[in-house]
Specification:
It is built from 4 helices and 7 strands. Strands 1-2-3-7-6-5-4 form a 7-stranded antiparallel sheet, with helices on both faces. 39% of the residues are buried.
Length: 175
């Protein structure tokens, strides 16, 4: 049963990160030169100390959260108590993220002096996911996404989960 719950939750997060496979047009970098997947930040290289500080199990990692290869994304999933944290990088710009109608309730935020964009993926009520995106100067946009397990009946807001986890990832997200 737990494996099924994990697979379903991972599938939901994949849909959120992929924006339901919605095509987004435009140049990913302000310089006009699109990034390649190889240039993106590697979200699967998180040190165990960061995972532990974020309340995640450093022995559990899903290095294929998208199920199929995606040219515009890199990502890894990590398991916590009743939730997953998905850490991903993408070629899409912040403007393209804002333009994706799968995402809503955008809020410009700052965590430890670092600007970010917090939003809710999907249409589920109440939401089971919340995401924060950070810009980098040359390795794409980096997202930290909290996704509650499908069977998690707690009233904890997924934004509270991502708010607690994201500061621990800042030390490894390039500026």
């Amino acid at each position: 049963m737990m494996r099924l719950v994990g697979v379903v939750a991972a599938s939901c997060a994949v849909l959120a990160l992929a924006g339901c496979s919605q095509q987004v047009e435009g140049q990913p970098e302000a310089s006009g030169a699109p990034l390649t997947k190889e240039q993106l930040f590697d979200p699967c290289s998180v040190p165990a100390s960061v995972l532990e500080a974020a309340g995640l199990d450093p022995t559990w990692k899903d290095d294929n959260p998208f199920s199929v290869a995606r040219a515009e994304w890199k990502g890894c999933g990590y398991k916590g108590d009743g939730h997953f944290i998905y850490f991903a990088s993408t070629i899409y710009t912040m403007d393209e993220i804002r333009a994706n109608d799968y995402f809503h309730d955008f809020k410009d935020i700052a965590i430890d002096g670092r600007s970010g964009l917090k939003y809710t993926p999907g249409t589920r009520t109440p939401p089971n996911q919340c995401e924060i995106a950070f810009d980098t100067s040359h390795q794409g946009r980096v997202m930290v996404t909290a996704t509650k397990f499908v069977d998690n009946k707690s009233s904890t807001d997924p934004c509270a989960i991502v708010d607690a986890a994201a500061p621990h990832f800042l030390e490894i997200i390039p500026r």
